[in-house]
Amino acid sequence: MLLSLIIFVPLLGMIVVLLLPRDSEELIKRVTLAFTLIPLALAVYLFIAYDRSDAGTQHAVSVPWIETFHINYHVGIDGLSVTLMLLTALLGPICVLASWRNIEKGIKAYMALFLLLETGMLGFFAALDLFLFFVFFELTLLPMYFLIGVWGGPRREYAAIKFFLYTLFGSVLMLVALIAVYLNSSIIPEERTFDIPTLISLAGETEHALADPTFQIWVFLGFFIGFAVKVPIFPFHTWLPDAHVEAPTAISVILAGVLLKMGTYGLVRINMAMFPEGMAFFTEVTEETGLWGYSLALLGFVNIVYGSFCALAQTDFKKLVAYSSIGHMGFVILGLAARNTMGVNGAILQMFNHGVISAMLFLLVGVLYDRAHHREINGFGGLGNRMPIYMGITTLAFMASLGLPGLSGFWGEALSLFGAFQEFEILAILSTIGIVVGAAYFLWTLQRVFLGKLNPKYEELPEINKREILTLVPLGILTIVLGVWPNFALDMFRESVAELTKLMGTFQAGL
Asked: What whole-number distance in Å separates Cα of residue 387 and Cα of residue 451?
């Protein structure tokens, strides 16, 4: 019941918002904020009350939905999903506050769509029925399309359509793979199922159709491409910079903080757990797999290096942060490709940490854009003299993102690289190029924006205000806490990761 409340309270909020008068903009904002604070309070409670010693599903609810096809409303949480639900619920009210003064037209529609988007994201992380999982995955597509296409920048229609088409392409392949899994779950129609735990169990039975290695490889690819678009993994990444640049600040925060994590979460929940033979084919180098065994690790490496060098070349502040996200998500892919306990723990920790840090970065870009009305890095200079508080918070976010020890960004990247080094030594070593380049573009940006002589055009630029600080403080605190105490998050999913690596036959005692 508690889990369903977290998922559907924002949907109830959307209905309430739609019933309010269009001209009551302040009331609409307050109601929306209230309906995002409720899931946050419940998610914090779930996080605190979660039994960290239990790797199984907790707070599970299963109710028949479409009985003809054995589809159930089946939700539950484990250490991974409860962590990402907390991140999603935290970013909800932060994004509402970030939109408070920035969204000037269609407030009612904007807030209603945002609440619908939050329901889709929360439901996705809790779904334990494969069809329900797909429904929540698709539910995020429509509101995001309109939030970018209506409230975005000058090229918003192009960015929204590109985002929609890329995601729809991946979704079609996912749907085909989903139907194939359902049809192969049993030769008896009455016994077929979409239940994710049941499918994972059946895939582990040697004689079952779902366990056939060839079948797993093809179905793995169908789901993988769908999730790869969302991450995004090279070469399915080109929608991301356009979407980020044109999206309103709050939607960029959600895009980087949560929607990208939906892709990597899907890889863990479906590809790794349900198709271990398919995962092994693309991550384990043997005589049978040959060079295919390097596939996933190589894609992670390409993401890291390509994203980092593209970020270094940017002069648009927001596009720089967007490309840096591509690079940082590469560490998640590299850690997952290792398939060992350390690598997977590092990948999941990086998912959470990147969600926090990237949200900070996009909020900070939005603060500057609201004042200067442009994002050209070379057009600033000396802002540290005028906005010292803003410079301090930005420096914290930059240092965390480049992986400075003592801040949260360090641990996810380090554990992912340590895990990857055990399986792919050369690729792990070469991937450190991304860390060096990341330090270069962040420090260079810090120099061009904040240091030197103050640009006369910005002598009257106002300092960051209290509302903007309020959106950044929780994320800054998490960045520091997870930097000095990574077990705050690691303890949540340690047992779940151990269970996952046992399913794949790659369990390693230790971390």
From this structure: 11
